[in-house]
Every structure is written in structure tokens, then in C-alpha cells.
Specification:
The structure holds two protein chains of two kinds. Chain A is mostly helical. Chain A contains 14 helices and no strands. In chain A, helix 3 crosses helix 13, helix 4 packs across helix 10 and helix 8 packs antiparallel against helix 9. Chain A is globular and about 75 Å long. Chain B is mainly α. The chains are: A mainly alpha, B mainly alpha. At the A-B interface, helix 1, helix 4, helix 5, helix 6 and helix 7 of A face helix 1, helix 2, helix 4, helix 5 and helix 6 of B.
Chain lengths: 304, 290
């Protein structure tokens, strides 16, 4: 796996082999084909529109007054208001819960990347029976749903006094995502030639220094990919904070939104701003990191 | 010197192994043990062997949830990847709109499942967006209480899952498309192979690795779905959207049937491992044949 294959965009704008001017087909054959193709483009745009319509609708509705929405759910908005947002803001204790989520996501990302990259270096470079065995043990974790361990983890956290403790949640996320991190990093490090490290070893550079001066800087692209993946998962997760954080002051955005808002009785003018507030911070960050997001989400998808 | 280097390197593994062993492997082992006890979550637990599993097999709720989970996964895997492939092949043929539209398709992926469920619970409501849209189009006869009818609820929940991740499938297929050798496509174009022919005999077989990844990921993801049924229907109506995960949650943290809940979670693990490894090895075999 190389960084290049991680991004579906690498080929964009470049030499895309589109036969818009097939040398083999004459103009008479080309015209209906071209018409068909533009029709396809229109249909494609409509299809994509259907996918984003719920969003547009969500944004528009959250800016309208409740009375206006009740009159016509799909109608043209007459008045706009930000009051829905401020209501939702206080209703899901947004300020506090967003900070909690940020803290948990940040710490989890840090510990997953640090422990994951450190562990992957020996796993990629030591080719002995035991290291393959350890690697396999980590990979097993990628197919264990969190629901399988959630009950025994709850007992463990209770015994360790880690319930209602950020550290407990961060430990759970670290254990959950280490398999993914190890998988990403190990295959990435394997694709790095060993020449530099051997030269460093001859110069008397120890393993620790080799890792920090040679390997770590090379890991930057795969780290950003991994961070995208992990931060999305952790920020958006419901089950782990729902089970392990019961103190209202420590809850995350998702838990507060889930426990304070019943979608079946609550009006869309409260529901939608709450939904938007929940995704807003990540959304803003990812608008700036768009390229990495796309790469991160299709990471590992294509082997070359 | 090399020897000492190796030892230092091996020490890098220790922190990761420690966290992984304590918070993943140990709970996993303890869970499998607890599923063979009558534990209520407290300090007292007696070993009862396979009793929980026998109770599970006789429990109509569990068999129903297993069935719902499998139907849900089948619908999501087929429709989501079908849509993703359709979008990817159309986008690949249109480089001028490719990037904009593929990024647009990914926006639902950035929403959390809870928030997506919030949005769609209103769209599916009796007086919500979908029915209003149908009314607007003059299709009043199709209006429906989507989440309140046992025959449609599970599919409505699956639709939200598909909406959220079809763009993701599309991105993976597009990445596969970008790896196709251009010479081959050019040669086919010169030979006069039309769109469908090119897709059938070149793109489809060469997209095999992307298909494997897509099917495996969506299968695992949909088998462990939790937030969608929880928020949209809470397992209802009449248990028609109860999946293995919601049943685990309900039994472990609400029902007082702690050990049974853990046994169901072991059933979930077996389902995920068996189905996903069978599917991915079948698809890998197919890759090699092509």
C-alpha cells in the first residue's frame, strides 16, 4: 500500500482516457452517443442531488420558524431565524458536551497513533514466528464488534474505578482502533525500503532514534489518513460514551443529543439544528482537509 | 549489536500490547466465559455450561433478531454497493464532474449515525418529508407510515444506512477505476467496444479487488448496525427492527438478563466472523480466477 494508491483523486485532472473523440467512430455514430452521454450526466447530477437533498432540507428547516414549517413542511421559507439553533444549543448542553467530545477524540487519536506506530515498527521489520503471531492477534481485533466486549468491559471499568472517567473511554477506543492502526502502519512500513535504517544502524543509531528520525517522518501521510478515520469514528460514536460515561457533565454530543431528544415527539425545528450542531465541528475541519478525508475513507481499498 | 537493537524494537510493542490485552483480549475472553454462567453482572456467578445458548436457541426474540440482522445486511450490501458502482462507473466516464460529485456523495458519510437517524426519522414520519414529497408529486396512494409498519420498518432503516454509505462505496469503486490500466481501456475503445461491453468484459472483472473490499466492509458494518435501529425505531414496531446489537444492549443494560445478553453478543461475533470470512475468501478466490 503506497500513499499514492490511497487517493481516488490521483488520476483526476490528469490523463483521463475518455474516448470523447474516438478515432474509430465517425461523427455520425458519435452524435447520438454524445446525446446519450449528456443525458447520463443530467441523470447523474439528479441522483447526487437526491443524496444531498436531505441535507439542504435539514439546513433550510432548521432556519425556519416552527409555525412556518408546520404550515408547509416542503414549502418555500418565508422567515429565517437562528433561534432554533440557540434552543438546541442549550437543550443538548452543547458547549460542555462538544468540549468533552473534543477532548475524548483528541486523546484517543493521540494514543492510537502513538501506540500504533510504535508497535507497527517491530511488527513490520522483525520477521520471526512470534511477531507474525502478535500481528495476527492484533488483526483479529478488526472483526470484533464492540458489542461483544461491552458488557465485560463495563465490569472491568467498574472494578478499575474507570466508569465516568475520560481515561476509561480513551482506553476503550485505543483498544478498539489499535488493530486498524497496526494494519495501516505495518503495511505502510513494509513498503518503505530498509536501506536508510541499515545505514543508520551502521552509524550506531539505536532503534529508538531510528524510529523517531527516519520512520516517524515518513509515516505522515498514512497518519493523516488514520486520523481522519479514527476521529470520524470516535466523534460520531454513541455506544461507548453511552455505556461508560453516565455523569451528565462528562457526556459527549451524541449521548446528550440521543438522551435529550426523542425524534418521534420532537419537532423538526429542534431536531434538525441539534443534528447539525452535532456534525458541525467535524464538518468544518473536513471541509479544509477534504483531500485527506477522501483518501482516508477509501484507505486500504485498493492494493497495487 | 543487532541483537540489542531487536530487543529495543520489540519493547516498542509493549504499550500497545498492554492496552490491547487489558481492554480487548481480556474482556473478550471474560465475555465468552460469562456467557457460560448465570451472571447478573454482580460478583456472584455460577458456571452453567451451554444453558444460555440453549435458552437463546429457544428464544423467539433472538432468532427474529438474527434473521433481521441478516436480511438487513443483505439489503444494505446489495443496494449500497449497486448504487456505489453505478455512481462510480458514471463518474469515471465524466472526468469534468468526477471530483465535485464524488466529494458531494461523501457528505452523508461525515454525519454521525445518530444525526442521520434524527434527520430521517422526520423524513419518514407520517407527516414528514417523504410523504409530503409524494403528495406533492400526486402519488398520495404511496404515502405510508414507513417506520410504523412492520413490513416496511426494517427496509426504511436499511435505506438510511444505504443513504449514508453509498458515497463511500462509490469512492472505493472509483479508486479501483483509477487503477485500471488506461492502455486496456484505450485498446477497447479503438476496437469499438461500447460502454456496456467495456464495463462487462474489462471494468467489472478488473474491479474485483474493489468489490471484495466494498462487500466485506459493508457486510461487517451492517451486521453490527446499532444506532440506526436504536434511534429510528428503538427495535419496534413489534420488534420488527430488533437486531443482534440492540438485543445485546437491551439484555445487558436493561433487561436484567446479563448472561443471556453476553451469549447473544457471542452469537453476534460468530455471525460476523463466519459471514465476513466466508464472503471475503469467496471473493478473493474469484479475484484469483479472473
Amino acid at each position: 500500500m503506497t500513499s499514492q494508491t490511497l487517493s481516488p483523486e490521483t488520476g483526476t485532472g490528469g490523463a483521463a482516457p475518455r474516448p470523447s473523440s474516438d478515432p474509430a467512430t465517425g461523427p455520425s455514430k458519435n452524435t447520438p452517443r454524445r446525446a446519450l452521454k449528456s443525458l447520463g450526466t443530467v441523470l447523474l447530477c439528479l441522483g447526487v442531488l437526491v443524496f444531498v437533498l436531505p441535507f439542504v432540507f435539514t439546513v433550510l428547516t432548521s432556519l425556519r420558524t416552527a409555525a412556518d414549517v408546520a404550515r408547509s413542511p416542503l414549502g418555500i421559507p418565508h422567515t429565517f431565524t437562528l433561534k432554533n439553533f440557540s434552543d438546541a444549543f442549550s437543550q443538548i448542553h452543547y458547549g460542555r458536551s462538544a468540549l468533552n467530545t473534543l477532548l475524548i477524540t483528541g486523546l484517543s487519536c493521540l494514543s492510537i497513533t502513538v501506540l500504533g506506530s510504535l508497535a507497527s515498527y517491530p511488527l513490520a521489520r522483525i520477521t520471526q514466528g512470534w511477531s507474525t503471531w502478535v500481528y495476527r492477534l492484533f488483526i483479529v481485533g478488526t472483526s470484533v464488534p464492540v458489542f461483544v466486549v461491552v458488557a465485560p468491559l463495563y465490569l472491568l471499568m467498574r472494578d478499575l474505578n474507570l466508569l465516568d472517567n475520560y481515561a476509561g473511554v480513551v482506553f476503550v477506543y485505543t483498544a478498539m482502533f489499535l488493530p486498524v492502526a497496526v494494519f495501516f502502519y505495518t503495511s505502510f512500513i513494509r513498503s518503505i525500503p530498509t536501506d536508510l535504517e541499515e545505514a543508520a544502524a551502521l552509524d550506531g543509531c539505536g532503534a529508538l532514534r531510528t524510529f523517531f528520525t527516519i520512520i516517524l517522518p515518513l509515516l505522515r501521510p498514512i497518519t493523516s489518513t488514520l486520523l481522519t478515520f479514527v476521529s470520524l469514528q470516535v466523534w460520531n460514536d454513541l455506544i461507548v460514551p453511552l455505556v461508560f460515561l453516565q455523569d451528565p457533565d462528562k457526556r459527549t454530543v451524541m449521548v446528550n443529543a440521543y438522551s435529550f431528544i426523542d425524534p418521534h415527539t420532537v419537532q423538526p425545528t429542534t431536531l434538525f439544528p441539534a443534528a447539525l450542531l452535532g456534525v458541525l465541528p467535524l464538518f468544518l475541519i473536513f471541509v479544509f482537509l477534504q483531500r485527506h478525508v477522501v483518501a482516508g475513507m477509501s484507505a486500504g481499498a485498493v492494493k497495487s | 549489536m543487532i541483537h540489542r537493537r531487536r530487543a529495543t524494537m520489540a519493547a516498542f510493542l509493549l504499550p500497545a500490547i498492554a492496552v490491547y490485552a487489558v481492554f480487548m483480549l481480556y474482556p473478550l475472553g471474560r465475555g465468552i466465559y460469562l456467557s457460560m454462567t448465570d451472571s447478573l453482572g454482580g460478583p456472584i456467578a455460577h458456571f452453567v455450561g451451554t444453558e444460555q445458548y440453549r435458552a437463546m436457541a429457544d428464544d423467539p426474540d433472538v432468532t427474529a433478531a438474527l434473521w433481521h440482522t441478516i436480511v438487513y445486511a443483505a439489503v444494505v450490501v446489495i443496494v449500497q454497493n449497486g448504487l456505489g458502482l453505478l455512481f462510480a462507473s458514471m463518474l469515471f466516464r465524466r472526468p469534468q464532474v468526477r471530483k465535485t460529485l464524488s466529494v458531494t456523495l461523501l457528505t452523508p458519510t461525515l454525519v454521525s449515525p445518530v444525526m442521520a437517524a434524527f434527520i430521517w426519522s422526520y423524513l419518514f414520519a407520517p407527516d414528514g418529508g417523504i410523504n409530503a414529497l409524494l403528495g406533492l408529486l400526486g402519488l398520495d396512494s404511496l404515502e405510508h407510515v414507513w417506520l410504523g409498519d412492520t413490513s416496511t420498518a426494517l427496509y426504511a432503516v436499511a435505506a438510511v444506512n444505504i443513504w449514508m454509505f453509498a458515497g463511500y462505496s462509490c469512492a472505493i469503486f472509483l479508486a479501483g477505476y483509477m487503477n485500471l490500466p488506461t492502455e486496456l481501456l484505450d485498446a477497447a475503445a479503438v476496437d469499438g467496444a461500447n460502454g456496456w461491453r467495456r464495463f462487462r468484459s474489462i471494468e467489472w472483472p478488473m474491479l474485483a479487488p474493489a468489490l471484495t473490499v466494498n462487500v466485506t466492509l459493508s457486510l461487517i458494518g451492517s451486521l453490527k448496525v446499532f444506532e440506526f435501529p436504536l434511534v429510528l425505531t428503538n427495535g419496534g414496531p413489534a420488534g420488527s427492527t430488533e437486531t443482534l446489537t440492540t438485543l445485546v444492549y437491551r439484555n445487558v443494560f436493561g433487561g436484567g438478563k446479563f448472561a443471556l445478553g453476553i451469549a447473544i453478543s457471542v452469537l453476534l461475533l460468530v455471525t460476523v466472523v463466519v459471514l465476513s470470512s466466508a464472503t471475503s475468501s469467496l471473493l478473493r478466490l474469484r479475484e484469483r480466477r479472473i
